[in-house]
């Protein structure tokens, strides 16, 4: 049922996710508002992962058909994918489960859960690092699909192999038939039913076209086609390819090659090892010196800065996606402002002052700022919220 809902109504699934994230902000305050908000956020994250998992094979089209490979290679890729999925699921559920355990079983049970989860995450990340060389990436980012990129602007249907099976039905049917009869990586040509020009779809997806218009491989855009032939279907077709090309090629690469990081240099190995071990070291120091001690926080901050510095030394070896993840980790340093004991000693006091100023000078501000400090206290008391991996 979920499969058909997602694949037949991708736009509805996308809006459902957005509404679930927005809903906690518009619901009137009540006793379990924070718990409801976290639960809805978790459901939205789960819906996003399910939507991505169900749409990816459809987006890839014929490219989702794997070529015969060694059983060992297939098993290795399957294991890698399952581990990454497990990490993504753990991180999406961690805060909600900790909150539920704290309410139902007390702080001790919640703390034991946190330790178990952090040790499991450390072991999984180290295995992925040493076995597959995976580094500087975030599980949810790897698995997520930006749905708007693969939706047709005209009918909101899912683009398959960058083509719309609804708006360009005759061409898509001919392409699917031709592609299934050949190696999916070959550059099969399909005739446009409107202008009769042969179109090399795979060349267009890869950034160029070779056909009757030019005779050589060049980069064709919708504007080029409109000026040369004016074919309505060709213009719309290339616009769809331009829109979805980047996402399609990334998904195709991951499907065929598995998740591959850039070369594992001494910098990335040292950086990722420090970053992976840091959460467990922080919990150990909290156990030894107490949760309110500054020693665990300062030690964690030093390790995080050192890890970031070492990773930056190998910057030129990172891919654009890895550089983006590196920048995201830099922004995570802001979370130290809400971590114990910085929150209690500094940040909370400043937040109270700011909210007091806003309530005194901004009309109707009291309606929206009444529960801000209480909400912050509730969430900051959760280890999983303090040490989340995304802002």
Contiguous low-pLDDT stretches (5 residues minimum) are 209-219
Order of helices and strands: HHHHHHHEEHHHHHHHHHH
Sketch the major β-sheet. 2 strands, antiparallel
Would you report the number of β strands? 2
Helix-strand makeup class: mainly alpha
Distance between the termini: 33 Å
**Oligomer classification:** single chain
Task: Assess the beta-strand content as a share of residues.
Answer: under 5%
Radius of gyration: 25 Å
For the biggest β-sheet, the strand order reads 1-2
Share of helix among residues? 55-70%
The dominant shape is globular
Q: Compute the number of helices.
A: 17
Overall pLDDT confidence: 82
Report on the architecture of this protein.
This protein is an all-alpha fold and 391 residues long. It has helices at residues 2-8, 10-26, 33-60, 71-104, 107-132, 139-143, 169-180, 201-205, 222-228, 232-257, 266-289, 294-313, 320-331, 342-361, 366-369, 372-380, 383-386, and strands at residues 189-191, 198-200. Strands 1-2 form a two-stranded antiparallel sheet. The protein is globular and about 75 Å long. The two termini are 33 Å apart.
Chain-wise SSE layout:
Layout: H1 2-8, H2 10-26, H3 33-60, H4 71-104, H5 107-132, H6 139-143, H7 169-180, E1 189-191, E2 198-200, H8 201-205, H9 222-228, H10 232-257, H11 266-289, H12 294-313, H13 320-331, H14 342-361, H15 366-369, H16 372-380, H17 383-386
Antiparallel strand pairs: 1-2
Helix pairs in contact: 2-3, 3-4, 4-5, 5-11, 9-10, 11-12, 14-16
